[in-house]
Design goal:
Largest sheet: 5 strands, parallel
Number of helices: 10
Number of strands: 5
Radius of gyration: 17 Å
Strand order of the largest sheet: 2-3-1-4-5
Oligomer: single chain
Helix content: 40-55%
Distance between the termini: 11 Å
Strand content: 5-15%
Shape: globular
Structural class: alpha/beta
Length: 197
Amino acid sequence: MARIVGLTGGIGSGKSTVSAMLAEKGAIIVDADAIVHELQRPGEIVFDEMVEAFGREILRADGTLDRAKVGAIVFADDAKRQQLQTIVWPRVGERVRELIESAGGSDVVILDVPLMAEATDGSRRLAEKIVVVDASEDTQLRHLAEKGVPADVAKARMAVQASRDDRLKIADFVLQNDGTIDELAKQVDALWESLRP
């Protein structure tokens, strides 16, 4: 059976960079965010349920989902955020399981899940080990600013995610990302050596 490893980190921590590095080494990446985007396309059940729950104002003129509007709604209201999670998370979990089942016995499957520390089941139960990409708040804000995310928006999103301490509590491996990309790459090299069958 494939080795299943969870990968998580706060917004702007560098988790996507680590995921890309592991993919280059031959890991199979199961990206929860990509699955969410797939399930939120028009015609999908998740899309229909989101429109029913939050109204047509979450749609662009072309009928596709306006993620910025959804984010503005759910990051400002805990009840609505939980409602969104109730719609999305179970279907993401089903798709993740399907992808894991299609992996080969010698594969290393990386479950790239931003909210792994927030979830008590699903991806966390599936993972044999959990890798946390850890970065200071200053580093997270800098990374997000480089992507064009305003500081107030970045801080609001960070505030509703699990705390740094909560993420570190679930970690079997911690990759420290307050340094250079080369320093991060060396840590990923060492991690990969420990994960390979």
